[in-house]
Specification:
Layout: E1 5-6, E2 8-11, H1 15-26, E3 32-36, H2 42-46, H3 57-65, H4 68-76, H5 82-86, H6 97-112, E4 117-121, E5 124-130, E6 133-138, E7 144-147, E8 150-152, E9 156-158, E10 172-174, H7 176-179, H8 182-185, E11 195-200, H9 204-218, E12 224-230, E13 238-239, E14 245-246, H10 254-265, H11 274-279, E15 280-284, H12 289-296, E16 302-305, E17 309-311, E18 316-319, E19 332-333, E20 339-342, E21 345-352, E22 359-362, E23 368-371, H13 374-390
Parallel strand pairs: 1-7, 2-3, 2-8, 3-4, 5-18, 8-21, 10-16, 11-12, 11-16, 12-15
Antiparallel strand pairs: 5-6, 6-7, 9-17, 13-14, 19-20, 20-21, 22-23
Helix pairs in contact: 1-6, 1-13, 3-13, 4-6
Protein name: FAD/NAD(P)-binding domain-containing protein
InterPro entries: Agnestin_monoxygenase, FAD/NAD-bd_sf
């Protein structure tokens, strides 16, 4: 039976929520309520299982095994399991995200079996801070939960602007996440006629989508041409001898890197066959953007925006008996401490983690990046777990 008072409440059960729960347990905090609308493992497990990860197998394993709580779950889970399957891969190679998704679900199951961790399948409607206590209201219950620590691990979603409408209002806009599922991608296009697909962006998500489109065309599942609108050259991760990684969070790695270099970087190379040259057209929009869109978007039948992600909506947040809802953009997230600030004052007991609340890091070249990924979230939560314990 659920309590109504907890030492911590975590909203969201994706990789960020997983990292928060394991680090709280590592720090000795129990009596945790973990809330999610379906406990599906977040976008990583629900939408991205078919794509290649941008993290090496060894980094995943080191991150998971560094947590005493996760290690106990691994030791107590009957074999074979998701970890033993993972250990069969080369530590220096990347893998399909389904493997990482299986690990997330295995750890989630283990965490929820720990005494002092309650699972609640529901949606948080609002959170009110009164003094040092958060009062959390749910959509599926009249019960109000109380805590001194509230974690927003609420995730993010692809940004979908609408500027295409002034160039081609008839374009069919495809959801970036759905385009990550290659096994179903062909169903988004007509069977008996060709389609021209515009992809805006050439970062990791953009290249993954282009790769999927390229492959379903090559497999004769659909007749496609791809137009990639880009501002910059494709970035690749560069591994240094001392273990540092330039473009660690922004550069392609593994299978995606190899595919891109073969099919996009060498597009005009004589070694590529004529068919491959015709499938992908890359257009630099860093100059004459409007003129290019005016001409080329009219050629497209479909368009995919791969220009980044934005935070999902928070629950309604109220502070200090004020009935005026705090707007999401009024809260400032500290990318070093996981804390939130409002009007230059720290919000008591409010923390963030996950893809919408990443750590800010600097790569060996001095480039500032957002550290995104399961292993990065584990590291960020580990750095801050002592703060979570003593800061209340």
């Amino acid at each position: 039976m659920l309590s109504n008072t907890y030492r911590a409440i975590i909203i969201g059960a994706g990789p960020g929520g997983l990292a928060a729960v394991k680090s709280l347990l590592d720090a000795g905090i129990t009596k945790i309520c973990w809330i999610d609308r379906k406990f599906g493992g977040g976008r990583l497990n629900e939408m991205y299982r078919e794509i290649s990860s941008n993290t090496k197998v060894g980094i995943y394993l080191d991150a998971v095994e560094s947590s005493p709580t996760c290690q106990r779950i691994i030791d107590s889970t009957p074999k074979p399991n998701a970890i033993t399957a993972f250990e069969k891969y080369d530590r220096d190679e990347t893998c399909q995200l389904s493997i990482a998704g299986d690990i997330c679900k295995m750890l989630e199951k283990g965490l929820l079996e720990i005494e002092g961790v309650d699972k609640l399948v529901d949606t948080v409607e609002e959170a009110r801070l009164e003094g040092s206590t958060w009062k959390v209201g749910l959509s599926g219950s009249s019960t109000t939960l109380l805590t001194s620590r509230l974690f927003l691990c609420t995730g993010s979603h692809p940004i979908i602007p609408s500027f295409h409408k002034s160039y081609n209002p008839d374009l069919e806009i495809l959801d970036l996440d759905k385009c990550m599922i290659k096994s179903n991608l062909h169903s988004l296009f007509p069977k008996n006629k060709s389609s021209i697909v515009g992809v805006i962006g050439n970062s990791h998500s953009g290249i993954l989508v282009i790769k999927n489109l390229f492959e379903i065309n090559k497999e004769r599942k659909r007749n496609l041409k791809i137009i990639n609108f880009k501002r910059n050259e494709i970035k690749y991760a560069i591994y240094k001898k001392d273990g540092g990684i330039i473009n660690d969070n922004t550069g392609l790695k593994g299978d995606t890197l190899n595919w891109s270099k073969k099919n996009m970087e060498n597009q005009n190379n004589n070694n590529n066959d004529k068919e491959e040259k015709l499938i992908i057209e890359q257009i630099d929009i860093s100059k004459n953007e409007k003129e290019i869109y005016e001409k080329k978007l009219k050629e497209c039948t479909h368009l995919i925006y791969a220009i980044g992600y934005e935070s999902n909506n928070y629950p309604k947040i109220y502070i200090d008996n004020n009935d005026n809802e705090i707007k999401q953009n009024e809260l400032n997230f500290n990318q070093e401490t996981t804390e939130f600030w409002l009007n230059e004052q720290k919000v008591k007991g409010l923390f963030g983690l996950g893809i919408a609340h990443p750590e800010k890091t600097k790569d060996p070249s001095g480039q500032i990046e957002n550290a995104v990924g399961l292993a990065k979230f584990f590291a960020f939560s580990d750095k801050n777990k002592d703060r979570w314990v003593k800061d209340i």
